[in-house]
What does this fold into?
Amino acid sequence: MTIQPSKRHVAGRFVWHYIEMVIAMSLGMVLLGPVWGAVLPDAITRVDVGTLTMAADMSIGMAVWMRVRRHTWAAIAEMSLAMGVPFLVLLVPYWFGALPGDMVMSIGHVLMFVFMALAMLRRRHEYTHHQHRFRIPRKWLGRGAVVLVALLVPGAVSAVNTVGKFGDQYKARSDTVAVQPVRKAAAHDPAKPTVAFLVNGSGTNVADLLGPYEVLAGTGRVNTYVVSSGPRLVPLTGGLDLVPDLTFDELARLLGERRDTLDAVVIPALNKTAPAEAGSITAWLREQSAAGAITVSVCNGARTLAATGLLDGRPATSHWWRLPGLRADFGQVQWVSGQRYVDDGNVITTAGVLSGIEGALRIIERLLDVDTAHEAARKVHWRHYSPGVAARIPSSSFEAKDVAVVSLTSSYQPGPSTIGVRLIEGTGELELASAFITYTEESMIGRTVAVGDGAVRSRHGLTFVPRSTVADGLDRLLVPGVDAARRQAAGTGPSAATGGLQPEYLHVGEEFAFDPVLRDIARTYDVPTARWAAKALEYPVLDVKLTGSAWPWAATIVLVVLALLGAAVAIAAGMVFRRIRARSRAAGPGPEPHDAPGAELAHCGS
It folds into this structure.
């Protein structure tokens, strides 16, 4: 007699089958997505192409799993249509400009899950029938367990190292420090253009901020202020703490007293701004734009600017890494790639990180003149200045080599990873930025710690506060700045507790501040990591000689050793388990403890 499963059992099978479909769909998207990125690096960033390739990836993953489950081809075709049709339908109004790209993604995903359920309900018997079960041979389960544990060990190490490095990028200091910035109000000249640099309380990209700042402040012909919504110490990338010059209200008061106006606002990439502060920043940016200021975003500062609505319907650019996300979230903006900056009247947006230098030079062209911009580029040794027009740059994308290098470096780099950066009075802003961002956010080699005896002022008057007064527990101690290297060579450099480390002076000659840092990464770690850092900085290094290991071999060896260790643990555990089970079977069940009287005789008699 066949026992019919209960309704609850059938419903459970149906729901579990649906969950399997979602997992298979997600795996297809994760595994096949990078392939499209390598084959169609430019086209994949388009909303329509990206949407269709994503739907194809999910359909392929699901189709493969459905064949494993021995579903009919008709059911597979129906499910593929259920996943693709919603996006195809929604792309029609998108192509006619009636629906933004982010809505195509959002609505399409909701409809896709609904259509999947409807397709399953249409063939409900096929999705609840017991014949779709499958069995995996025991030997394959054992081998799979060995592989899983072998991957689990390096995976756990990778997770700990990567999360630790990413988590420290903008970590706020644990103590409270009350330091006043250099008061620049007395030197304010209403005859000069005034440029404000925006920062936020949860962290600001150090190169996006300090690169344009030094370019503009170095001219001596611009009033420059770092401003925030409130008085606070601001963490920059890598743990460099900055004291902003003014709050929004203090800047307004200063400009009102001097009967002056703000000419431009520079918006660097801001780290996870709190909702209350984000609202304050959005309102302030809209107010400055309405009053006639040029709003200039650097790198992912375009996200902050786009959130104000000031980019709607206008061309704009950002870091190549960030553009796909920006296209998805702000479909009403005409995002473009392959340009250092986009100048659209009262809005200028720049590409990634060091493209902010070109943005600052464009501000100088707009507010002063081209000759002053030429001189500003010469002062910071920027070799790529393109007067009057935005230079073309590669439309980069993640490549397989990039993924491998970043994964190895961030997860298993055995080299010096805790790097002290000595703060010296008068260091250039770009020199500071090169030390704090390149070893951390861009190359993922390790973490940096600002070391010093107290608050220092940079070359153009910004106030920074170190987090440590000694160099204990560090792997390296770097000292940025050409002036610091010269003072050391002359025997007049500052003394500091070094924790037994020999200070290494990064900038010993007149050149762009990031060049010696990239050479140091290539020499100390490996060339591919240095090249990846340059790519992330959007900085061409064809004329920078990088010498060192041709591959992160040390990190690769660590990965292999960890995988072998995991496999050895899995094999040993399996051998112990089999031995225990074999002994248990050999021992047998033993005599029954409660045999009836006379049972022994009965057994013998039989």
